[in-house]
Every structure is written in structure tokens, then in C-alpha cells.
Specification:
Blueprint lengths: L7 E5 L6 H14 L3 E4 L4 H8 L6 E6 L8 H14 L3 E5 L2 H4 L5 H15 L4 E5 L7 H13 L4 E3 L11 H10 L5 E5 L5 H9 L4 E4 L6
Parallel strand pairs: 1-2, 1-8, 2-3, 3-4, 4-5, 5-6, 6-7, 7-8
InterPro entries: Aldolase_TIM (IPR013785), DeoC (IPR011343), DeoC/FbaB/LacD_aldolase (IPR002915)
Protein name: Deoxyribose-phosphate aldolase
Keywords: Cytoplasm, Schiff base
Length: 214
């Protein structure tokens, strides 16, 4: 699967993650030439130092993980610290609870506030949608909302809710997203053939939480 390395982001976000496990993922990113490393906010500063300023891989972190239902002000503070610590890709989890309530209008306001903060520091803004909780209409609406408010990437899942990989659903996510917006797919459980099809369909990033078998 060497030809896929430049599309793969290694994520190390599970609650029991150890420092050694994160160093192993960092070594994979460096040695295999992967696209990026995603760590929790607590570890951003350390891995920015390890990567240095010129490392070609993107250092990403998550905001509002895993359910997105923190107050916007809390997310803003998390983002400010993450940017200060050196993250260059900020993955913000959609507040699904707000979507399912009359407060859904607040989502557009929240995205507008957060994208301004992130883009002011020339970092990428990724919106994470927990696709398994949304029907097709809700998914399409939220994809459009995130794209219209300036998202650089859309991601189809947090990876925190167990779900079997579905190539059809992943390809549908790519079709629903505008071509102007990058797409990240959580690819745990996907075969090499599946990942090839995703890349051929225009998926820019494949997020894997397990070690790569080169």
C-alpha cells in the first residue's frame, strides 16, 4: 500500500493512548512519508517540538471531541491554545445535539466564528460530521453548511463511535461534498482496494488509527 502513504493520516485519539504509542505513530508518519498526524490537544505542543517547523506532515488536533456539544466559547479557547501550541489543522466536531434541536441555527454562527479564528492563523479548518447519526438529508444539509462557512476539509466520522467501514457510505460522503472542499474518510477496516477507490473518487485523506502494515 506504499502508493497510499501520501494520503494517510495517523490518528491517536483513543482514551488509553500512551506516549509510546504516539511516538510509534509519529515514527510511521516520518519514515513512511504519511500526510499527517492527529493527536489530542494535550499532546500538540510536544509533537510540534518533535516535528519541528519544517516537517512535511500536517499536525492536526481535535476540538470538541468526541461529541461537539461544548459551548462555542470553550471551543474558541481550545482552538487558541491548539494554534499557539503548533497545530496546523484544526478538526472541529459538529454539535450533533444542536442539530437535533431548535438550536440548530447556532451551528452556522459557531462555524463562522471558528473559521475566522483558524484562518486568521493560516491553519486548516476541518469539520467532523458523525455520519452514522445522520440521515442522508441531514448529512447533505450539514455538509453544505460547513462548506458554505469556509471549511477546508470535511471528515465523515470521529472514529470514537464504533462502526463498520462501508465503502458505499464513504463514497456517498464524497459525492455529497462540493469538489472545492477536501474530504477525509475514517478508513479503519477498509481494504487497500477500498482505499484505492476512495482516492480515485477524490478523497484527499484517509484517517487510520491502527499501525500500518507497509
Amino acid at each position: 500500500m506504499n502508493h497510499l502513504f501520501s494520503y494517510i493520516e495517523r490518528t491517536v485519539l483513543h482514551p488509553g493512548v500512551t506516549l509510546n504509542e504516539q511516538y510509534d505513530a509519529f515514527d510511521e508518519v516520518t519514515q513512511l512519508g504519511l500526510a499527517g498526524l492527529t493527536v489530542s490537544p494535550f499532546w500538540v505542543k510536544k509533537f510540534r517540538r518533535e516535528m519541528g517547523a519544517d516537517h512535511p506532515a500536517a499536525l492536526a488536533t481535535v476540538i470538541g471531541y468526541p461529541y461537539g456539544y461544548q459551548r462555542t466559547e470553550a471551543k474558541q479557547t481550545e482552538i487558541e491554545w491548539a494554534l499557539q501550541d503548533g497545530a496546523r489543522d484544526i478538526e472541529v466536531v459538529l454539535n450533533t445535539s444542536a442539530l437535533f434541536s431548535p438550536a440548530s441555527v447556532w451551528l452556522k454562527i459557531e462555524f463562522a466564528k471558528l473559521v475566522a479564528l483558524i484562518h486568521a492563523q493560516e491553519a486548516f479548518f476541518t469539520v467532523v460530521l458523525e455520519s452514522a447519526l445522520l440521515d442522508t438529508d441531514q448529512l447533505a444539509t450539514m455538509i453544505k453548511l460547513a462548506a458554505d462557512t469556509g471549511a477546508d476539509f470535511l471528515k465523515n466520522a470521529t472514529g470514537a463511535i464504533p462502526a463498520d467501514f462501508s465503502l458505499d457510505q464513504a463514497l456517498q460522503f464524497r459525492r455529497l461534498a462540493p469538489s472545492s472542499v477536501g474530504v477525509k474518510i475514517v478508513a479503519d477496516g477498509a481494504s487497500v482496494s477500498d482505499m484505492d477507490q476512495l482516492v480515485a473518487a477524490g478523497v484527499e485523506r484517509l484517517a487510520l488509527s491502527h499501525p500500518i502494515q507497509a
